[in-house]
Amino acid sequence: MKSYIIIGVLALASCAGNSKKGADTVATDSGKTDTSYAVKANTPAQNMEYCFVHTDGTAAQDTTALHLVINANKVSGEMNWLPKEKDRRKGTLLGTLDGDKIKAVWSFMQEGKTDTMAVEFKLSSQQLAQKPFTVDAKTGRQQVDTKADYTIIYNMDNCDKFKK
């Protein structure tokens, strides 16, 4: 059963981009532990490129697409919120990875104006989850709902939305 999980994780990782293989452990036929190639099932790979998509709306017509590049604990990339009939937000992400948690600043353009917003994600080898936003009553601006769990789920994608 372990070998099927490892094969599945490695296959998904190869679809998402090039990575360095982890140094986790797995038992071999001889009962000894081999640390040369195993990857933990839910641990994000380092030095890798990921793409994710989330759709919502009554007919799944609104899309958020993310392109993440992870180098050690540094995260960069793009995040595009593309609602069907509203103003779009397209921009860049810069942040850090701590374990499986990403904290970043999203710098985006909307209605001809540049703005920034903090975002928080939880990255696994197969999906991305985001903390939702709430509106600050004093400023009227959106911000991360730090009390909420990671409830917005993104599915892995092939990065076509980001190829120029």
Q: Top keywords for this entry?
A:
mainly beta; globular; two-stranded antiparallel sheet; 12 strands; 164 residues; 2 domains
Structure description:
The structure is a single chain. The protein has one helix and twelve strands, in the order αββββββββββββ. The strands form three sheets. The chain has an eight-stranded antiparallel β-barrel. A two-stranded antiparallel sheet has the order 1-2. The radius of gyration is 18 Å and the shape is globular. The protein has 164 residues and is mainly beta. The chain has two domains: 2-38, no CATH class; 48-162.
Give me a quick take on this structure.
With 164 residues, the chain is mostly beta strands. Helix content is 9%, strand content 51%.
List strands and helices in order, with pairings:
Elements: H1 2-16, E1 24-27, E2 33-38, E3 48-56, E4 62-71, E5 74-82, E6 89-98, E7 101-110, E8 113-123, E9 127-130, E10 133-135, E11 142-144, E12 152-156
Antiparallel strand pairs: 1-2, 3-4, 3-12, 4-5, 5-6, 6-7, 7-8, 8-9, 9-12, 10-11
